[in-house]
Write a structure and sequence with these properties.
- Helix content is 25%, strand content 25%.
- It is built from 5 helices and 14 strands.
- The strands form 4 sheets. The chain has an 8-stranded mixed β-sheet, with helices on both faces. Strands 2-3 form a two-stranded antiparallel sheet.
- The two termini are 21 Å apart.
- Bound molecules: cytidine-5'-monophosphate (C5P).
């Protein structure tokens, strides 16, 4: 049992990769496991926060302090987030949101055609949920993630300003043990007017604990 230092703090965490439907049985998705977001939710709840978890994955949740909202698509995630955002103090945007969705969703399963080898899917740009919600920011402390394969700090800083968020947790996904579908990550914490802080490689659970301790000490 952890000291309830986050009692009274209302937190939203988004987790998992969005699933953008092509037809009733198929979707466009990505490799996100949702582990980073689930760890953020579990640790915050353990420290006494009330957590709303908006997620595409269902995983082990260790607290009655977590209300879970299941979504599939980016548009559903955005709508759910907009409803709860005003009542919350912190947003952790850990979801891997698909930048595109199929323009048309077939109502029936798409059939293959005996005479056709080539098929085309037209994609439409999804909203940038983080950028849009940050425009409605009032008291909320908003945290985004950045996964990069080069120029980690400059690219992450650009995101901090373009998306108007308070913090970016950045990681180089080309490094061993970092990024999608592993239990560990090497995070660089980036804030405005502060030197970037790189944490050693550690488990996503330990990163979540370190992040919430940082929040308790420097932000709350
Ligand atoms: O632009 P990029 O995808 O690298 O930004 C990553 C951050 O932005 C993550 O926090 C992610 O959850 C969020 N994002 C979003 N909506 C999108 C794309 C990314 O909220 N369409």
């Amino acid at each position: 049992f952890t000291k309830p230092v986050l009692a009274g703090v209302n937190v939203i965490v988004t987790a998992g990769g969005t699933k953008e439907a092509l037809d009733p049985v198929r979707f466009i998705g990505n490799n996100s496991s949702g582990k980073m977001g689930i760890a953020m939710a579990n640790v915050a709840a353990d420290m006494g926060a009330h957590v709303t978890l908006i997620s595409t994955v269902h995983d082990y949740l260790n607290s009655p302090n977590i209300d879970e909202i299941q979504v599939n698509t980016a548009v559903e995630m955005k709508e759910s987030l907009e409803k709860v955002f005003p009542k919350n103090d912190v947003l952790i945007m850990a979801a891997a949101v698909s930048d595109f969705r199929p323009m048309h969703k077939s109502t029936q399963k798409i059939k293959k055609d005996a005479d056709k080898d080539l098929y085309t899917i037209q994609l439409q740009k999804n909203p940038d949920i983080l950028k849009e919600i940050s425009k409605k920011k009032d008291k909320q402390f908003v945290v985004g993630f950045a996964a990069e394969t080069e120029n980690l700090i400059p690219y992450a800083k650009k995101k901090l300003y373009e998306k108007n968020v308070d913090m970016i947790l950045a990681n180089d996904v080309s490094k061993a043990g970092s990024g999608f579908n592993v239990d560990t990550n090497e995070i660089t914490l980036i804030r405005r007017d502060k030197e970037p802080e790189t944490w050693p490689l550690m488990s996503k659970n330990d990163i979540a604990a370190k992040f919430w301790e940082y929040y308790d000490e420097h932000i709350k």
